[in-house]
Design goal:
The protein is an alpha/beta fold. It has helices spanning about 15-30, 45-55, 80-85, 95-100, 105-120, 130-135, 140-150, 180-195, 200-205, 215-220, 240-250; strands at about 5-10, 40, 60-65, 90-95, 125-130, 160-165, 205-210, 230. It has a single domain (about 5-250), classed as TIM Barrel. About 45% of the residues lie in helices and about 15% in strands. β7, α10 (about 215-220) and β8 form a beta-alpha-beta unit. The longest helix is centred in the last third of the chain and has 19 residues, at about 180-195. Bound molecules: 2-phosphoglycolic acid. 2-phosphoglycolic acid binds near residues 172 and 211.
Length: about 250
């Protein structure tokens, strides 16, 4: 039985003070030992370290939204996996579609980041997903297979990996993939992973869904056989909504 995982991706929202308030509220609800699923929050880099301190006592996993593929050096404005691990992060989100779309994160770049993050002891949430144009062009499966295969090139052990399927057309748009549409892609991702790493590893792999998950659609999405939780954007900025989604998974 796979343990579901729900992670709030705060994106570029909240000052440090606002992040601390939100994290404190969520930590009070999550507490310790009471939930059957795993819960993470991903504040901005600026707030990460301080948020780590206020959630340390709880079961919440500190998560980063990105990292660089080198550990140190002349990379102005970047943050490395080594720094994140030393700041108490458990997870890092890599290959988010906004990174791919606006910041040049190709499959090759994402792959370098994935390898470095795993090497530094972080767990990785690797995001994949097709655009509307790709879906309408009938190439969803080949795009996602490419993102999985290239994103994991040279990675031999996937025990610290989570994949997040996030159709780009469903992110922040209010449009959610239907549970059947999402399930179809999740099953195909699991089959790709089985081909690469074997049946057993693929059955252990958790695959989250992301894209306009709300309290009103979470139960149905998380009820699908290959959907193992969610990566939540907008709704994770509100404690009541986020906790309703967490409880739908737990
Ligand atoms: P959304 O974002 O829930 O606001 O659609 C999801 C994500 O981008 O991770």
């Amino acid at each position: 039985m796979r343990r579901k995982i729900v992670v709030g991706n705060w994106k570029m929202n909240n000052t440090v003070a606002e992040s601390l308030d939100l994290a404190t509220e969520i930590a009070e609800k999550v507490g310790t030992g009471s939930l059957s699923c795993e819960v993470g929050i991903a504040p901005s880099f600026l707030a990460l370290h301080e948020v780590g301190k206020v959630i340390e006592w709880s079961d919440i996993r500190l998560t980063a939204q990105n990292c660089h593929y080198e550990n140190d050096g002349a990379f102005t404005g970047e943050v490395s996996a080594r720094m994140l691990a030393a700041s108490g992060c458990s997870y890092v989100i890599l290959g988010h579609s906004e990174r791919r779309q606006y910041f040049g994160d190709t499959n090759i770049v994402v792959n370098r980041k994935v390898k470095k993050a795993l090497e530094e002891g972080l767990k990785v949430i690797l995001c994949v997903g097709e655009t509307l144009e790709e879906r309408e062009g009938g190439v969803t499966e080949s795009i996602i297979t490419g993102q999985v295969v290239e994103g994991l090139s040279g990675v031999s052990d996937i025990s610290n990996l989570v994949i997040a399927y996030e159709p780009v057309w469903a992110i922040g748009t209010g449009k959610t993939a239907s549970s059947a549409q999402a399930q179809e892609v999740h099953a195909s991702i699991r089959a790709t992973v089985a081909g690469l790493y074997g049946q057993q590893a693929s059955e252990h792999l958790r695959i989250q869904y992301g894209g306009s998950v709300k309290p009103s659609n979470a139960v149905e999405l998380f009820g699908m056989p290959d959907i193992d939780g969610g990566l939540i954007g907008g709704a994770s900025l509100n404690t009541a909504d986020f906790m309703a989604i967490v409880l739908a998974a737990c």
